[in-house]
């Protein structure tokens, strides 16, 4: 059967066919050879650059070394925020294979609790590939080593030795310095710098840490290492050391700050102390606070929940953002306005226990009889100020208030500050669309009504009266600050008012127990009680629930004869000024005699249940237990009747 | 050529004789000895053993398949106690021998009849089926291509080949969906678009191209290849040995290797042209083309012109069986070169 038309093919033809076809084969071979040579030339010459880059990026792994953050130090060089060596473990979500197993292994090796594991799982789910997930920080060497040796079985786990932010005084500086934390996804989008996603790198999230981020952060170091395809490091190519951030020296006195924070004890309040020579803020504490160390390490759900739910608002900086009616603490300031308004300080007013203005009767807290300016300050007679303020008019008092720094926004490197209200005729028109009335003058003259200020403002007011200079509060330490300009207030008036304030403490005043336990140093001050609810519920003393109690205030300066320090203390719902001046007294004592002040604190802390961190730990444990209980009830494991009782008793405890 | 392979393997092992370079050289010398022995054998010997060898190798393949079935997986190796060989490799010269012998036996007048075709298909069907079952697509292709070349040279009508090519164009997509294993399918798709899957199946091609491309004209220098030394290039000592070489020796090294192969094939085809008998002609051409397929497919593969199929590069790749195959081919070629035969012999 022929398939080619029966053409006969001889051996010779076949041989010819062979050589012809062999030539074809050879030609094809050469063709393919040329194609290959061309292809190779194309890859290795034309695309050489591209492939060289790829090969380099294959080979070299650039690791950024987070820079050490600049320290925050106090006026004496004592660290407020420093860096401690830290063993930490992170997860790189990209490189992980079996997530659940890896996390379980780590949980066992590092003995993580369930809450931690939940957090890690949650973050792993949310994490974009670029974001490392922190497993644990502050590990001891044994645990760190336990993880390190098991690395080959744990892809995606990255143990590192680095530095973490440490705040030696913890909660005492929480509001002031803020805290650091891992950059958020938004922050990375805004500034896609790879250092932001390097494990262990933190940026300032609040307070001074945030404000001075640029100078504190420093420059990251870099380590170029040659790695194999499996990520094994072959050798280090070169290393560029990190440049640590610049230290920041604050005007603060760290010891005083810590003392003030501790002295506030279980109260919710603020202490501000200023240097009357240059406006340096020596203390600006607000308690309760959060421990910035917890935030920097990545705060747990429960701990954050506790801070959020606490009615003492530990998350708000009361020194700057807490607004209170200043109450009687502004009476010395009002006195200055009266003096400037031509009131003779010796002129007396009769106090029958209040004053009728129009159809309303304004109470004074006592019946003072015949009162002159000094007595009105010393015994805090409201009637005197009602009457005199009506005489000089309220706008001149508001003017004086502003001259002394009330209602002002200071030039401070802080994230935010509330500057409150100094009401006057203009303000009331704008804000409430009505005319200023006599009862407004009466209310405002004793720091009630619309009058609101923060504790720092009260301290500035006191410092300006004490020094006679237009001091500006300063947070940063600065050598040789030029002296502040004198106030446009007669020195005689100032001196009269300082005497009156001395009378409050050292004479027949309302705060005689505020005398310093020191010889030859006298304190001048002024008490204040800010009403929280209307008087018809009775004066907000100690026998009402915590949140209805009056705020206790006290402003002071020392020494009386040559003022050097000014302070303001505000105790939220303290039940009156008597909650505030003992704190001011002890803080002032600390400046002059640390030992004496510490002795006092030791006794107090014992009755409060320990130092700040001890109490916070206890609070956290109680909160956690309560949450557990609530959860148990929600799941029907415990009958709810029991819990209501528990809830009430714990609320009552908070109120104590 | 083999010495150069030795040098490259020396570098691939990070400047060490072990585990590849030393063994490579020893093997080469052993097989070179074998090739020299082969070269002493006369044409008639090869004629005589052509079909028996084919049958033996088919049986070996069958044996592999049975053992593989027992072990429940793909199985390419047959252990002969002292040496482990890959029968599918041996099939490459064996099929050439058998096909060349067949067309040698076929009277010239029948070359354009069905009688010239069905025995070829029969000869091919056993080994192809067995090797495909291993599964080893690359080797199957080489075996078929070798046999087809011999058939082509034997003078089968041209339209059969054109038709065959057309048929392959039709069958290839079908084969892709029905005959190929999953991983082989993936290799083909990623070949078409390797950047799609840089960490998966496209990794080989990408890394190989990076190795070749980053070498540039003169290469990174001996022992300085990072791709291969740091394990980015997989199989840097076997299938992708050319990339290892090109990274360190650059375009110059690559061209030198190509030129070396060019000389080899020119010699191979020259031997075929000079050969006096039909059997030795077909045999020589078939064998040298088989070596050519090794080289062409391997190089196309490492340069990203062909899908990744497991085909080593002659002389350079580390691997015993393939080197044995190559050296058998060379040995037979040398034998034909020595004894071109007498033209009158067959056609008397």
Automatic annotation (TrEMBL), chain A:
Sorted alphabetically, the keyword list is: Carboxypeptidase, Cell inner membrane, Cell membrane, Cell shape, Cell wall biogenesis/degradation, Hydrolase, Membrane, Peptidoglycan synthesis, Protease, Transmembrane, Transmembrane helix
- What topology does the record note for this protein and the membrane? Single-pass membrane protein
Supply the name of the protein.
Answer: Penicillin-binding protein 2
Region Disordered: list its residue ranges: 634-656
Pfam families per the UniProt record, alphabetical: PBP_dimer (PF03717), Transpeptidase (PF00905)
All copies of domain Penicillin-binding protein dimerisation, residue ranges: 65-237
Location (main, coarse):
membrane
**NCBIfam families under this entry?**
pbp2_mrdA
Q: Where in the cell is it found?
A: Cell membrane; Membrane
Q: Where is the Penicillin-binding protein transpeptidase domain?
A: 269-588
From TrEMBL, chain B:
Pathway, according to UniProt?
A: Cell wall biogenesis; peptidoglycan biosynthesis
Q: Which reaction does it catalyse?
A: [GlcNAc-(1->4)-Mur2Ac(oyl-L-Ala-gamma-D-Glu-L-Lys-D-Ala-D-Ala)](n)-di-trans,octa-cis-undecaprenyl diphosphate + beta-D-GlcNAc-(1->4)-Mur2Ac(oyl-L-Ala-gamma-D-Glu-L-Lys-D-Ala-D-Ala)-di-trans,octa-cis-undecaprenyl diphosphate = [GlcNAc-(1->4)-Mur2Ac(oyl-L-Ala-gamma-D-Glu-L-Lys-D-Ala-D-Ala)](n+1)-di-trans,octa-cis-undecaprenyl diphosphate + di-trans,octa-cis-undecaprenyl diphosphate + H(+)
Q: Where in the cell is it found?
A: Cell inner membrane; Membrane
Membrane-protein topology: Multi-pass membrane protein
Q: Which residues cross the membrane?
A: 20-39, 51-70, 113-133, 139-156, 161-179, 249-269, 281-303, 315-336
InterPro entries the record matches: FtsW/RodA, RodA/MrdB
Is ATP-binding there in the keyword field? no
Keywords in alphabetical order, please.
Cell inner membrane, Cell membrane, Cell shape, Cell wall biogenesis/degradation, Glycosyltransferase, Membrane, Peptidoglycan synthesis, Transferase, Transmembrane, Transmembrane helix
| Coiled coil regions, renumbered to chain | none
The protein's Enzyme Commission number: 2.4.99.28
Q: What are the boundaries of the signal sequence?
A: none
The entry's family comment says: Belongs to the SEDS family. MrdB/RodA subfamily.
Role played: Peptidoglycan polymerase that is essential for cell wall elongation.
List the HAMAP family hit by this protein, alphabetically. PGT_RodA (MF_02079)
Q: What is this protein called?
A: Peptidoglycan glycosyltransferase MrdB
Question: Which organism was this protein described from?
Answer: Parasphingorhabdus litoris
């Amino acid at each position: 059967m022929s398939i080619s038309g029966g053409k006969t093919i001889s051996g010779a033809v076949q041989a010819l066919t062979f050589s012809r076809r062999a030539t074809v084969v050879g030609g094809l071979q050469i063709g393919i050879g040329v194609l290959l040579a061309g292809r190779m030339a194309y890859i290795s010459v034309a695309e050489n650059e591209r492939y060289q880059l790829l090969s380099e990026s294959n080979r070299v792994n650039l690791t950024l070394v987070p820079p050490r953050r600049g320290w925050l130090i106090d006026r004496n060089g004592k660290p407020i925020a420093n860096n401690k060596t830290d063993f930490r473990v992170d997860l790189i979500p990209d490189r992980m294979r079996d997530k659940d197993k890896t996390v379980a292994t780590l949980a066992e090796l590092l003995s993580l609790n369930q809450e931690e594991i939940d957090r890690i799982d949650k973050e792993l789910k949310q994490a974009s590939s670029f974001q490392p997930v922190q497993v644990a920080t502050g590990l001891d060497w044994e645990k760190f080593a336990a993880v390190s040796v098991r690395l080959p079985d744990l892809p995606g786990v990255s143990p590192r030795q680095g530095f973490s932010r440490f705040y030696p005084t913890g909660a005492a500086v929480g509001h002031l310095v803020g805290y650091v934390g891992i950059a958020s996804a938004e922050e990375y989008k805004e500034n896609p710098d790879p250092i932001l996603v390097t494990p262990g790198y933190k940026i300032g999230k609040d307070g001074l840490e945030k404000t001075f981020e640029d100078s504190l952060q420093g420059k990251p170091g870099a380590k170029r290492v040659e790695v194999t395809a499996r990520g094994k490091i072959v050798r280090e190519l070169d290393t560029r050391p990190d440049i640590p951030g610049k230290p920041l020296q604050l005007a603060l006195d760290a010891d005083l700050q810590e003392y003030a924070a501790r002295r506030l004890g279980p109260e919710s309040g603020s202490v501000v102390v200023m240097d009357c020579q240059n406006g340096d803020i020596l203390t600006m504490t607000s308690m309760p606070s959060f421990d910035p160390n917890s935030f920097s390490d990545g705060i747990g759900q429960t701990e954050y929940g506790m801070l959020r739910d606490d009615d003492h608002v530990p998350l708000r900086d009361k020194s700057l953002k807490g607004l209170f009616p200043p109450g009687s603490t502004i009476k010395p300031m009002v006195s200055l306005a009266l003096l400037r308004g031509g009131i003779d300080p010796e002129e007396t007013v009769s106090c029958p226990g209040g004053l009728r203005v129009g159809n309303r009767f304004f109470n004074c807290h006592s019946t003072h009889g015949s009162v002159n300016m000094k007595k009105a300050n010393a015994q805090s007679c409201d009637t005197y100020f009602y009457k005199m303020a009506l005489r000089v008019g309220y706008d001149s008092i508001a003017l004086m208030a502003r001259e002394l720094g009330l209602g002002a926004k200071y030039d401070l490197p802080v994230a935010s500050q509330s500057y409150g209200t100094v009401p006057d005729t203009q303000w009331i028109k704008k804000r409430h669309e009505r005319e200023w009335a006599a009862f407004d003058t009466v209310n405002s003259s004793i720091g009630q009504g619309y009058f609101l200020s923060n504790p720092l403002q009260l301290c500035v007011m006191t410092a300006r009266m004490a020094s006679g200079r237009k001091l500006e509060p300063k947070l940063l330490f600065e050598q040789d600050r030029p002296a502040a300009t004198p106030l446009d207030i007669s020195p005689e008036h100032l001196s009269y008012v300082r005497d009156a304030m001395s009378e409050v403490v050292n004479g027949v005043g309302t705060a005689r127990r505020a005398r310093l336990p020191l010889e030859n140093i006298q304190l001048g001050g002024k008490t204040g009680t800010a009403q929280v609810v209307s008087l018809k519920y009775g004066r907000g003393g100690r026998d009402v629930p915590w949140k209805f109690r009056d705020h206790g205030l006290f402003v002071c300066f020392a020494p009386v004869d040559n003022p050097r320090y000014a302070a303001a203390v505000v105790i939220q719902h303290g039940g009156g000024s008597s909650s505030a001046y003992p704190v001011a007294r002890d803080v002032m004592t600390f400046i002059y005699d640390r030992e004496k002040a510490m002795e006092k604190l030791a006794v107090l802390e014992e009755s409060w249940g320990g130092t700040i961190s001890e109490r916070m730990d206890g609070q956290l444990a109680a909160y956690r237990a309560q949450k557990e209980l609530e959860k148990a009830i929600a799941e029907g494991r415990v009958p709810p009747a029991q819990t209501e009782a528990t809830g009430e008793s714990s609320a009552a405890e908070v109120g104590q | 050529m083999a010495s150069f392979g030795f040098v490259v393997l020396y570098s691939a092992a990070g400047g060490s004789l072990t585990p590849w370079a030393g063994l490579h050289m020893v093997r080469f010398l052993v097989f070179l000895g074998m090739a020299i022995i082969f070269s002493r054998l006369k044409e008639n010997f090869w004629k005589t053993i052509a079909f028996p060898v084919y049958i033996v190798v088919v049986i070996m393949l069958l044996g592999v398949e049975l053992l593989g079935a027992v072990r429940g997986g793909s199985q390419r190796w047959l252990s002969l106690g002292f040496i482990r060989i890959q029968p599918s490799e041996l099939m490459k010269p064996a099929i050439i021998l058998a096909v060349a012998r067949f067309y040698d036996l076929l009277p010239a007048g029948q070359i354009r009849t069905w009688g010239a075709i069905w025995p070829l298909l029969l000869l091919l069907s056993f080994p192809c089926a067995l090797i495909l079952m291993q599964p080893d697509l690359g080797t199957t292709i080489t075996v078929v291509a070798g046999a087809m070349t011999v058939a082509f040279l034997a003078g089968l009508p041209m339209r059969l080949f054109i038709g065959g090519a057309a048929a392959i164009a039709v069958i290839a997509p079908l084969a892709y969906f029905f005959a190929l294993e999953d991983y082989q399918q993936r290799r083909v798709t990623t070949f078409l678009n390797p950047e799609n899957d840089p960490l998966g199946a496209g990794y080989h091609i990408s890394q190989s191209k990076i190795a070749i491309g980053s070498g540039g004209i003169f290469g990174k220098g001996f022992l300085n290849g990072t791709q291969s030394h740091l394990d980015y290039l997989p199989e840097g000592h076997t299938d992708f040995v050319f990339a290892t070489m090109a990274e360190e020796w650059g375009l110059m090294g690559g061209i030198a290797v190509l030129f070396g192969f060019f000389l080899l094939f020119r010699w191979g085809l020259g031997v075929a042209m000079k050969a006096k008998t039909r059997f030795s002609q077909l045999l020589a051409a078939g064998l040298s083309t088989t070596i050519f397929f090794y080289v062409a497919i391997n190089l196309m593969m490492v340069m990203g012109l062909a899908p990744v199929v497991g085909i080593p590069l002659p002389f350079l790749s580390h691997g015993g069986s393939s080197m044995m195959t190559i050296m058998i081919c060379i040995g037979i070629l040398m034998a034909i070169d020595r004894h071109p035969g007498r033209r009158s012999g067959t056609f008397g």
